[in-house]
Design goal:
The chain is of the alpha/beta class. The protein has 10 helices and 12 strands. The strands form 2 sheets. It has a 6-stranded mixed sheet, with helices on both faces.
């Protein structure tokens, strides 16, 4: 009898998550039988929930907010990226119930960009945001040979924390305002602009107060690419404005799907076929 894999998503809130639908498609592509459940879990219930997953022979789980840092203290081994970022979104439950922690967010973003025909090496990249997603994305951009990097963020505290973490003299860190974003687009000759913040997410600010129509996008080169980590809505105002200017855009689903692909492959050792990645994108677009 074929093995049935059991996976879970931990965090709060998680009811909106598309992960079960996505992983079901991956499993179909790999010919596997899986169960993927969502467990609303805060920090106070994390240990108890992990013990439940071990008892019930789960193969692994994902962590979302607010558990990406908290989970580190319960892992037995972590990847180099997770150790550097002090963040983990994927855990494999190995032999003897050993917990192995990984982060797949940044590599998921890069894989989605590359799948859409854009190379990172040698490119000048502007990142909006300085939270956990932005940190993971910046690390992966660095590892993939980006030429120059600039990070702009609304909060000075998070920006300073990110600057201290990377301690990189060739990466620019500054506050997100109209003057700075215009200056960096012009000064650095930006090839790729990535929103790795909550800007534009349903329930958050749709656009920056300093430029609600995203007019600064008109300063980008005609062959520049605009990428969003937000997938709800799938077409954010940022992407819609970029499209109207004739710029290439990559929606937030690609980061979501590829970080899931990497998690699925860590858990199962299988490779998700490209056509099933595309199938997942098409299905989620209709939800």
């Amino acid at each position: 009898m074929a093995k049935k894999y059991k996976f879970a998503l931990l965090g709060t809130p998680v009811e909106h998550s598309l992960s079960p639908e996505i992983h079901k498609i991956f499993a179909e592509g790999c010919g596997l039988d899986i169960e993927y459940i969502k467990i609303d879990t805060g920090k106070s219930k994390l240990k108890e929930t992990i013990e439940y997953l071990k008892r019930e022979n789960f193969s692994g789980f994902n962590c979302t907010m607010p558990l990406k840092e908290e989970i580190i203290k319960y892992t037995d081994r972590i990847s180099q990226q997770s150790g550097f970022l002090n963040s983990c979104n994927t855990v494999k439950i190995g032999e003897n119930k050993i917990l192995n922690g990984y982060t797949t967010d940044g590599n998921g973003m890069i894989a989605g960009i590359k799948y859409n025909g854009i190379e990172i090496a040698g490119k000048n990249v502007l990142v909006i945001g300085a939270g956990g997603t932005a940190k993971s994305v910046l690390l992966s951009l660095t590892e993939n040979g980006a030429n120059s990097l600039a990070v702009l963020n609304r909060s000075k505290e998070n920006l300073d924390n990110m600057r201290d973490l990377f301690d990189d003299p060739v990466t620019h860190f500054n506050l997100l305002n109209l003057e700075n974003i215009k200056n960096y687009i012009k000064m650095c000759g930006i090839d790729i602009l990535i929103n790795a913040s909550s800007l534009g997410m349903k329930g958050f600010d749709e656009s920056p107060a300093f430029d609600p129509e995203y007019n600064f996008l008109s300063l980008l080169k005609k062959n520049a690419v605009v990428v969003d980590s937000v997938y709800n809505p799938l077409e954010t105002k940022l992407l819609k404005t970029a499209k109207n200017l004739g710029l290439k855009t990559i929606d937030g689903f690609w980061m979501l799907v590829y970080q899931g692909v990497f998690a699925f492959e860590i858990w199962t050792g299988k490779t998700v076929p490209d056509e099933y990645i595309e199938k997942a994108h098409a299905v989620i677009k209709r939800l």
